[in-house]
Amino acid sequence: MVGGMVLFSLMMIMAVGAPYWGTLDPLELNPIERLHAPSMDHWFGTDMLGRDLYSRTIYGSRISLMVGVCVAALSVTIGLAIGLLSGYHRHVDAIVMRVMDGVMAIPAILLAIALIALVNASVQNVIIALTIPEIPRVVRVVRAVVLSLREQMYIEASRATGANLLRILGRHILPNTVAPLIVQGTYICASAIILEAYLSFLGAGTPPEISSWGNIMAEGRAYVRIAFWILLFPGVCLATTVLAINLLGDGLRDTLDPKLARRM
Q1: Cα 185 to chain center, whole Å?
Q2: At what angle do helices 53-88 and 123-149 cross, to 10 degrees?
Q3: Where are the alpha helices (DSSP H) in the chain?
C-alpha cells in the first residue's frame, strides 16, 4: 500500500506541477528537430512535428488522471444513490437491476465508443462515456451491502422507533458502504485511465490537439520503427500510474477488510 501511495503521489505531483516541470510548450512545433532521439535538450526526444515529448508526456498526465478521478467520483456517487434505493426497496430493486444488467451486458469500450460517436469528442464527453459503464458495478457492490444489512435487528429497531428512510440509510447503512466503495473507486480510476488511452488511441477519445498519453501513442504508432520513444515514455507513465492505483487499491482492501487484516 505504501509503495502504491508513493507512486500515485508522484504522478499527482507531476500532473499538478506540469507547468513547472515541463521545459517547453507541448504544442510548440519545430519541424527542424522532428523525430530526434532523447538528448539533453529533449529528455524524451521529439515527435513527428518536432514537439518536445517530455513536455507532452507531463501535460498528458493531467488529462489521464483527471479522467480517472472524475470517472471514479461520478460513478461512485451515482452508483451509491441508486444502490441504496435498489437494495432497500424490493419493488424498485427488480426494475433497477434489470437495467443495470442490460448496461453490463455491453462491453465498456464498445459502449463508450458508441456514446462518443453520438457527440463531439471532448474531455467532458469522454468522462461521461466512461462513467456510464462503471455505474452498474458500483450499484451491485452497494446493493449487496444493503441486502445484508436491511434485515439486521438494529435496522428493525430503527423502523420500530419511527426513523424515516433517510435517517436509516444515512445513519446505519451508508457508513458500512464506505470501505468497499473506496476500494471499488480505486479500481474504477485505474480502469478509466486505461479506457481513456484506448479511446484516444483509436481516435475516439480526446481531440488530437489535447496532449494525452493515448493521443501521443496513437500519433507515434506509425513511427515506432524509427522513433520508438514516442510510444515508450507515455506507455511507461501509463503503466506506472495504473500499477500505483492498483497497489493502492489492494492495500486499502487489506486494511479496510477486518477479516483480511486479522489474517495478515
Answers
A1: 8
A2: 30
A3: 2-16, 18-21, 53-88, 90-104, 108-118, 123-149, 153-160, 165-168, 174-201, 213-220, 229-256, 258-263
Residue listed under C-alpha cell 500499477:
243
CA distance 1 to 209: 36
24 burial class (0-12, 13-18, 19+ CB within 10 angstroms)?
Answer: middle
- Mark 65-91 as b/e (b = at least 16 C-beta within 10 Å): bbbbbbbbebbbebbbebbbbbbbeee
Alpha-carbon distance of 70 to 49, in angstroms, equals: 31
SS3 38: coil
Sign of CA dihedral 68, 70, 71, 73: positive
Phi-psi region of 199 (alpha: psi -120 to 50; beta: other; left: phi over 0): alpha
Amino acid at 13: I
For position 71, what pLDDT does the model report?
93
Q: Which three cell numbers stand for residue 210?
A: 489535447
- The predicted-structure confidence for 140-196, as pLDDT tens digits, reads as follows 888 888 887 777 676 667 666 666 667 777 767 777 788 788 888 888 998 898 888
How far apart, in whole angstroms, are the C-alpha atoms of residue 16 and residue 30?
26
Nearest 5°: the CA angle 256, 13, 33 is 140
Residues 6+ apart with CB under 8 A from 21: 14, 58
- The reported pTM is 0.84
Q: Give 40-98 pLDDT, tens digit per residue.
A: 888 888 888 888 888 888 888 888 888 989 999 999 999 988 888 888 777 787 888 88
How many whole angstroms separate alpha carbon 146 and alpha carbon 50?
A: 55
| CA angle, 154 then 84 then 113, to 5° | 160
